Amino acid sequence: MTDIAGTFMAASEAKVNDLEHRRKINFNIGKYNSAVVKGKTQFSDLNLARERAKNIKWKAIESLDQQLERFEYVFTQRGGRVIWAENASQALDEILKICQEKNCKSIVKSKSMVTEEIKLNEFLEEHHIESVETDLGEYIQQLDGEPPYHIVTPAMHKSKEDVAKLFHEKLNTAPNLTPEQLTMVAREKLRSRYTQAEIGITGANFIVADIGAIAVTENEGNARLSCAFPRTHIVVAGIEKVIPALTDLGLFWPLLATFGTGQQLTVYNTIVTGPRQASETDGPDEMYVVLLDNGRTNILANEKSRESLYCIRCGACLNACPVYKNIGGHTYKSTYSGPIGSVITPHLQDMKEWKHLSYASSLCGNCTEVCAVKINLHELLLENRNEAVVSGFSSWSERIAWKAWRKASLSRKMMNAGNGKVKNWVINKIFKQWTRQHADLHFSPKTFNQMWKEKNGESQPTSRK
Predict the structure, then answer these.
(1) Is residue 442 a contact partner of residue 424, using CB atoms and an 8 Å limit?
(2) What is the pLDDT of residues 346-367, one digit of tens each?
(3) What is the CATH number of the domain that holds 367?
(4) Do residues 136 and 186 make contact, with C-beta atoms less than 8 angstroms apart?
């Protein structure tokens, strides 16, 4: 069995010492931070907007079964088909069946984290079906053979020089192209793909229950082309993406734009209600929506962790997290990185193997502070830690250490015993995990209790209640 936690620690240690990586990330997140400040000015009461969005997602998740059934009913009335997938394997099998029915050889695919979650591209390649990423960031990552680095910005860790070098190596372009020229190269390579592909695959930023539609948000128009040109359109979406009503988009679209990229509204916002109707001139002949569970009902069943299903994947918590900014997205080895990834991955995968992600946090609370829908992320990280311990997934040495700490901290005699040198030796020589990455701890020669006694006699300091 792979030591996932050990691999994570080794990769993290290597990445934090990569100063060039830190420079690129700080530069790109710095541009994001500047844009977000401007984007937030569109809200007369930002806190109220976030609170309302959270309440809408609460309503959607608490009545999830009803919302999804309502979506299915309305969507199928217009000729669409809904596929319920309990796990990644079922979703992949159903997509393969559709591909085989259509004799599909090539697919155009827009940006979708849930398709990364089920490893769709690798699966299609195994079955000799070409899947081309049409989002520029995803296209860059696909050329480089890497997964997305960030929920919103897949190639955030690459500079323009890195991309120019990659295009030179993979596409034989000049090695010193500007970002504008690189974009035009990608556009030229991808445009013909839309008309050649038999199937287009997109994700969904929102599933709109009352009108039976999916809503897609993007800045390049590639998702709109992916679902309009091919004769078959497949949507893959997590069941938590549902919102009750079309009118809710008036709140969620600006929030997603501002917290995701700092815009007031993204360039393309598309609502798709089904395949082409008799009165319409364009669109696919057939449209399928794959509703994916893949562990989400595990989170739904947990009253405390359920709140994490409110996430709209804006990526704001990643940009705010000091841990993410130092170790990067690929270090997590999971589809969803940063604070939200650390919260949901242990529930989507396996708590025992992935509990270490919930410790990859300073618990500073900045992720909660910037969350578009006010998810208490840092508290959910603590809930994960507690669940891991209660489930018996903590190590023997960890349990012994905390038992010893509890016993000592509840005993004034033990806390006062020995001088600072003894305590320094115990902490810095026995408990080495801290000092592997930090300077040695140095205790005061005397405790506060001892200094109080020397100054005030035997009287004890009183505590406020």
Answers:
(1) yes
(2) 999 999 999 999 999 999 999 9
(3) 1.10.1060
(4) yes
